[in-house]
Design brief:
Layout lengths: L1 E8 L3 H10 L5 E4 L8 H4 L16 E2 L12 E2 L15 E2 L4 H11 L6 H11 E3 L10 E5 L5 H12 L8 H4 L2 E4 L1 E2 L1 E2 L2 E2 L2 H6 L8 E4 L3 E7 L5 E8 L2 E13 L2 H11 L2 E2 L1 H6 L6 E2 L4 E3 L3 E9 L10 H10 L11 E5 L10 E6 L3 E2 L2 E2 L6 E8 L6 E4 L10 E3 L6 H18 L8 E6 L5 H11 L1 E2 L29 E3 L14 H16 L3
Parallel strand pairs: 1-2, 1-15, 2-12, 6-7, 15-29, 16-17
Antiparallel strand pairs: 3-4, 5-9, 7-9, 8-20, 10-11, 13-14, 14-15, 18-25, 19-24, 19-27, 19-28, 20-21, 21-24, 22-23, 25-26
Helix pairs in contact: 1-13, 4-13, 11-12
Length: 516
């Protein structure tokens, strides 16, 4: 048994930030269930699709989803140093102002509002653009060599009625190119930005292949450490100050439930002693995503991995392999009266189906339709008291009728973008959906919607009985324990969740040390 000031469970996006900040003046143990991030494909931007379903991905499955005609959906979650930031498409956004207004209202804490969020974004960012901050650990780049079809897609989105977004990463408004977590043509994950620069600190210990089984409590119910398994042996680590759980929106509630923190009836059902009766695992949210695709009359990234392009990447760090795939996006309000966008269009110069390159003989392009303000809610529950059993994950996709209607409108708008005049020299006809009549579009939404991998909310912060953690991210009624990751978001942001998770973790470090 070894003692530390802080034990952090999970070396994902939030865990890497915390390990860096807390180890500056404290002894810290960072535990990661996955392997080191040594696989070459992790650093090659366009190779992220090759990492899904591998040992670097938890590769969870949902329950059969009633709103998706009974389909089970794959949920990618990173399982390596850097977590999902080591396997994602590298897109960086701060979130919309309305997101943080909502967080401030849910927590009765203006520090979670847009001004407070901006303070911490400015701490973390090191951007090449002129509208994000510079000097922080997280390098942010423009796409190195955007495909000409990406430019045409942006112009087509504007022609179809979207605003031209000049500061898309900051404001989450309009259509424009993405900022990406890259540096020098390679991925710059949370591990690259925050963890590796401080690995030589004597105050930081990092263990990979360390699967945390349960939290440890003293006789007064305070969390004092964790039990974990590494190399087949069970070990114990003690935290003199706090344990911080940063294992993500699936594994964080899973660990709390296994440790007796959660809905009392559910815990008793599995013979687990109830330590705190809290709504752990409830309020799960995700961005549902449905792809529309179109044939192209020019080459796209469907054939990116040629020998010439590989050589260009290896020698110059240029060319298609530096692309994250989704080089541009567009934010759109699917109906009048909304104070913020509820749809994000992914503008992709490649044919994507079911989250992968489709592999057709003919090249194409894709307009993904992501619903970024969903009303549907789900939950994470235990399958059994065995920590090796995958949890029961039910995101409840499209159980809210409003979500279906928004996606239907989004699919129709995607067709408008694809057929807009700036794409006249590229557009070669519709692939999916096969038509734009009402029945075809609705069937496409039900049959093709999948996860955008932006899971959040399952340990939500707030002030009421529906909250798991308080606005300082302390687990309610349990001393010595915080949760810091996307699971604490009261509502999922209208953007990809990497940036907001990093901001949240930066503020959490100050909350833990009492400097916020």
């Amino acid at each position: 048994m070894t003692g530390y000031d802080y034990v952090i469970v999970g070396a994902g996006s939030a865990g890497c930030v915390l390990a860096n900040r807390l180890s500056a003046q404290n002894d810290v143990l960072l535990l990661e269930a996955g392997r080191p991030d040594e696989k070459r494909e992790i650093s090659i931007p366009i190779a992220h699709v090759d990492l899904l379903g591998t040992e670097y991905d938890w590769d969870f499955r949902t329950t059969p989803q009633e709103g998706l005609d009974g389909r089970r959906i794959t949920l990618a979650q990173g399982r390596t140093l850097g977590g999902s930031s080591s396997i994602n498409a590298q897109m960086y956004f701060r979130g919309h102002e309305a997101d943080f207004d909502g967080w401030a209202a849910a927590t009765s804490d203006e520090a979670w509002g847009v001004d407070g969020a901006t303070e911490y974004y400015e701490r973390l960012e090191d951007a090449e653009s002129g509208y994000l901050a510079s000097g922080g650990p997280q390098h942010l780049a423009a796409v190195t060599d955007p495909h000409p079809v990406s430019a045409a897609l942006v112009e087509a989105a504007v022609e179809a009625g979207l605003d031209r977004g000049k500061q898309v990463a900051r404001d989450a408004e309009g259509a424009g190119y993405c900022d990406v977590i890259q540096q020098g043509g390679e991925r710059c994950s949370a591990a690259d930005a925050y963890l590796k620069p401080v690995l030589d600190r004597s105050t930081l210990t990092v263990e990979t292949g360390a699967r945390v089984r349960r939290l440890r409590f003293d006789g007064d119910g305070r969390v004092t450490g964790v039990l974990y398994v590494k190399d087949g042996a069970t070990r114990e680590a003690t935290a003199h100050e706090e344990v911080v759980v940063s294992a993500g929106a699936i594994n964080s509630p899973r660990l709390l439930l296994l440790s007796g923190i959660g809905p009392a009836d559910h815990l008793r059902e599995h013979g687990i002693e109830v330590r705190a009766d809290l709504p752990v695992g409830e309020h799960l949210q995700d961005h549902p995503l449905v792809y529309t695709s179109y044939w192209a009359t020019t080459d796209t990234y469907d054939d990116a991995e040629t020998l010439l392009n590989v050589a260009k990447y290896l020698l110059l760090k240029r060319g298609p392999l530096t692309s994250n795939g989704t080089e541009a996006v567009g934010y759109w309000r699917s109906r009048e009266g909304l104070d913020a966008p509820d749809v994000q269009f992914m503008l992709v110069p490649a044919t994507i189906e079911e989250g992968e390159l489709a592999g057709h003989d003919q090249s194409g392009f894709t307009v993904g339709v992501g619903l970024v303000a969903p009303e549907s809610r789900g939950r994470v529950r235990l399958r059994s008291a065995d920590p090796d059993d995958d949890p029961v994950i039910d995101p409840g996709y499209l159980t809210a009728d409003a979500d279906v209607e928004a996606l239907v409108r989004g699919v129709r708008k995607a067709g408008d973008i694809a057929e807009a005049s700036p794409l006249a020299d590229v557009y070669g006809g519709r692939n999916l959906p096969e038509g734009d009549d009402e029945a075809t579009v609705r069937e496409h939404v039900r049959q093709r919607t999948r996860s955008y991998y932006h899971l959040a909310g399952s340990c939500r912060m707030g002030t009421g009985e529906d909250a798991v953690v308080d606005p300082q991210l302390r687990v309610r009624g349990v001393d010595g324990l915080r949760v810091v990751d996307a699971s604490v978001m009261p509502t999922v942001t209208r953007t990809n969740t990497y940036g907001p998770t990093m901001m949240l973790a930066e503020r959490a470090a100050d909350l833990v040390t009492g400097t916020a």
